[in-house]
Amino acid sequence: MIFAISKFEDLLSHYRIAPQKGSPFDSVFLAYGQKVSRVRDIHISFADVCHLCDRRFFCEENQHIIGYETLYNTPENPTHITRGMTPAYAEKFINFIQSHNQTLITETLRELSDTLRYSAEEITTIKHFLIDLYILVKQKIMQLYPNVDIPFLANASAIDLLERKYYLYEIIKFLAEQFDMWTHSVGFSSGENVMDEVLYYIHHNYKENLKLENIAPLFGYSSSYLGKVFSKKLGINFNSYVDQVRIDEAKKLLSQETLKVYEIAEQVGYSNVDYFHKKFKKYEGTSPAEYRKNLLSKDY
Fold first, then answer.
1. What share of the chain is helix, strand, coil (3-state, %, to 5)?
2. Please, which residues bridge with residue 79 across strands?
3. Within 10 Å of residue 119's Cβ, how many Cβ atoms?
4. How big is the chain by its Cα radius of gyration, in Å?
5. For the segment 231-275, what is each residue's pLDDT rounded down to a tens digit?
6. pLDDT in tens, 123-171
7. CB within 8 A of 138, min separation 6: which ones?
8. What is the C-alpha to C-alpha distance for residues 270 and 177, in angstroms, rounded to an integer?
């Protein structure tokens, strides 16, 4: 018995060093259960192995061995994929892509991988969650940059590709590559002129609830520092600049007769139409309705 265990441990030692890439043993996968001292208890070890084989999806790249220790090192309260996880992570990645923050993309993908590794969900559910995440980020980037030529994969192709992946790390790597490609397709290159990047971000996200304390970390700054730089460079504070961008967009929409004033308010980022009226009058000296009336009367 001792001799057999010794030989098996030698085998494990051999496979802990990944076989040469492309060798016949590169696809070998070993799972081992806990040691038992009686033949009648072998079923305990076998049950461990069955469970471990189900968790092969979570192995790291070039990992050929997984042991029973893994089963007993997992958190007592495994995570669950909730309805709000997809939009929450999608919003993070959308912001990081637009701000060219590769560091936060990498860190968040690593955090997501760790979260899913200890999830209580079925592998199929995890794959579907990651597919939904990919599609949601892609759709939002397409909406924000309709005139930018971005190399997107068709949804059907992406779904088929991710469904056929054997490991979680392969899917995370795919997402990292896609997000990196999209990051380089939109906006300015990071590090040359941060203010240009911030302005670019505002002009593509003015419809959202933009706050300096939320935007500053995306570009690696504190809100107080970025606020000072913003005012110094542009001679106007952050909130006033966002208001001006929104009002300029509202004026374009008011030149058309297809939308009502409250609909225009919502489209440019004001959820309260009275607040929109107040801001519009502050910058234009007249109400949105009067502005539209005067504008349309000039066309006749």
1. 65, 5, 30
2. 119
3. 18
4. 27
5. 988 899 999 999 999 999 999 999 888 889 999 999 999 999 999
6. 899 999 999 999 999 999 999 888 888 889 999 999 999 999 988 999 9
7. 152, 155, 158, 178, 182
8. 35
